[in-house]
Each structure stands twice: as structure tokens, then as C-alpha cells.
Design a protein that fits this description.
This is Secreted protein. The chain is mainly β and 157 residues long. It has two helices and eleven strands, in the order H-H-E-E-E-E-E-E-E-E-E-E-E. It has one domain. The chain is 10% helix and 44% strand. A hairpin with a 3-residue loop joins strand 2 and strand 3.
């Protein structure tokens, strides 16, 4: 029989769920920062968000015939974007906030990440894809010990 945690993770589309058991609730409170709640359109991949984090990220997708943009907001403020640019076969990560987190945009293969750079910063990576094949794009809000990603969105090369 599948556990409730595994069924919940599968239903949410989460790639990995990390769970830790404690002998008492007091021990859990003393050692683990609060885990974020997955916002609509998000999958918590690894939850250990630090207590100083501003809030839970939310994701919004916009698309036209050549570009797909996943906007990342925290507490109503745009902190970054993950983008797919079809004409150039580029995945793009944009970080706008100096909040200690970074943005990573992922497609099947290349990843663009703003890790290690001070915001505002834009990172770009090219991919070699055959034309008109479906691939997926995710934008991730990441930091020291946490990674919260949007659900994957279908894009075309």
C-alpha cells in the first residue's frame, strides 16, 4: 500500500519529498525551520526554507507564439522569471530581488541559474533541440537548502 505522503507527492507532481521524523514535537521545532506550503501551480521539491525567508513563492505563466515566461512572486512582489525563447532555443533565468535566493530556469537539458550573482542578474543557456518537439519549462526559487519549483509547462523548440 502506498503511503499518504507518497500519494500526496505524486498528486502534486513533486519529484522528491524529504521527510524527517522526530521523537517529540519540541525536537522538531528546535531543529528544523518551518517548511513552506506549496502555492497553487507549485511543487515543493525539497522543503527546508529558512525562517528569514520573505514568504512562499507563487508562479504565473504567460505565453505567446515564441516565448513562455514563468513569473515568480513572493508577497506580491516579482522576484524573478524563468523563460523559454523558442527562436533562439534559450532558457533564461532573471533574478530581480536581493533576497538571498536565486532563480533557476530548467528545460529538459539546459539550465540557466543566477546562483552566485548579485541581483539584478540574467543568466542564459542555449539548448540543441529538434524543431517543433514538446519540452517542459520550470522556474525554481532556490536558496541554501530549499528548492521550490513551478509545475512544468509544455513549450516547443
Amino acid at each position: 500500500m502506498t503511503s499518504i505522503l507518497a500519494r500526496t507527492a505524486a498528486a502534486a507532481g513533486a519529484a522528491t519529498i524529504t521527510a524527517t521524523l522526530f521523537a517529540s514535537p519540541a525536537a522538531a521545532d528546535a531543529t528544523v525551520p518551518p517548511a513552506p506550503k506549496a502555492a497553487a501551480g507549485a511543487a515543493v521539491v525539497r522543503a527546508a526554507m529558512p525562517s528569514q525567508a520573505a514568504g512562499v513563492p507563487k508562479f504565473r505563466v504567460e505565453t505567446n507564439s515564441q516565448t513562455t515566461i514563468v513569473t515568480v512572486t513572493v508577497n506580491g512582489h516579482v522576484v524573478g522569471r524563468g523563460e523559454w525563447d523558442d527562436p533562439s532555443n534559450q532558457v533564461i533565468a532573471r533574478d530581480y530581488a536581493r533576497d538571498g535566493a536565486y532563480i533557476q530556469a530548467e528545460v529538459e537539458g539546459p539550465r540557466a541559474s543566477t546562483k552566485g550573482h548579485q541581483a539584478p542578474y540574467t543568466a542564459k543557456e542555449r539548448g540543441a533541440f529538434r524543431e517543433d518537439i514538446p519540452i517542459t519549462l520550470s522556474a525554481c526559487y532556490m536558496g541554501n537548502g530549499y528548492k521550490i519549483c513551478s509545475l512544468p509547462y509544455r513549450v516547443y523548440s
